[in-house]
Amino acid sequence: MQSKNLTCTEEVRVRFNETDPLGIVWHGHYIVYFEDGREAFGRQHGLTYLDIQKAGFVTPIVKSTCEHFLPLKYGETFNIVTTFINSVSAKLIYKYEIFNQQNQLVCSGETIQVFLDAENNLCLYNPEFFQAWKDKMGL
């Protein structure tokens, strides 16, 4: 059975306050760009943090990775491609690719989030609302 992955592409502009004295984006901001990608993905595919909170859950990040290949500079625009990786586990796995204006891969990474209920208990099975979303998306 072939796995179906959902993606979202968001264009972002490098802001002045995100650059270091060398004029390039400080490495820590790429994690923020990943969040921009997750937010855009949620809006596009109907799985926002507000939807998750409304269902009574939170999804803290338990793992993040980030590899840098090329720098971004102040004023440049770039695309962040966010891909939801389907898993049978009760977790949200996102892969990210950031491309500069020349469509060169600047950075790639991944985050993994787990579900906690209202009492901060780890969910071992997909919450009902999340499974319904996956079913709706054909995952």
Automatic annotation (TrEMBL):
PROSITE patterns: 4HBCOA_THIOESTERASE. Keywords: Hydrolase. One of its GO terms (molecular function) is fatty acyl-CoA hydrolase activity. InterPro entries: 4-hydroxybenzoyl-CoA_TE (IPR050563), HB-CoA_thioesterase_AS (IPR008272), HotDog_dom_sf (IPR029069), YbgC/YbaW (IPR006684). Pfam families: 4HBT_2. It comes from the Bacteria. Belongs to the 4-hydroxybenzoyl-CoA thioesterase family. This is 4-hydroxybenzoyl-CoA thioesterase. It comes from Epilithonimonas lactis.
